[in-house]
Amino acid sequence: IDIDKFLINLSKSGLFGLDIKYLNEYDNDLNDNEQSNRTIEINYNQGIAKIIIRSKQTDIECNDPLLMTKIRDALLMDNIGTL
Fold first, then answer.
1. Which of 14, 17, 27, 62 has its CA 20 to 30 A from that of 49?
2. CA nearest neighbour of 23 among 9, 38, 4, 12
């Protein structure tokens, strides 16, 4: 996933004020270049939604169906070129 494009797509969906943290988790399956930008945690509106992006999967924690749809749409916009 291209983080920059994903963040732009989130802002296009109306999600602003994101708290972005780069997490230092180590994965033996990845080389040094992949380790540096591997796990990112994005929090929206003080924890109403949390998005954790890893090299092989993205997890979304959100109880608001409308907000969840916006986040999924942003993910789809990011991946549409790879389908």
1. 27
2. 38
Question: pLDDT tens digit string along 16-39?
Answer: 888 988 877 655 665 555 555 568
**CA 21 to CA 6: how far, in whole Å?**
15
Q: How is residue 62 written in tokens?
A: 């959100």
Q: For position 60, what pLDDT does the model report?
A: 92
Question: Which candidate, 10, 35, 12, places its Cα nearest to that of 24?
Answer: 35
Residue with the two structure tokens 């169906």: 65
| Angstrom distances, CA of residue 11 to CA of 24, 75, 82 | 25, 12, 21
Please, are residues 74 and 6 in contact by the beta-carbon 8 Å criterion?
A: yes
83: tokens are 């389908």
- Average pLDDT, integer, range 36-56: 83
H/E stretch holding 9: helix 3-12
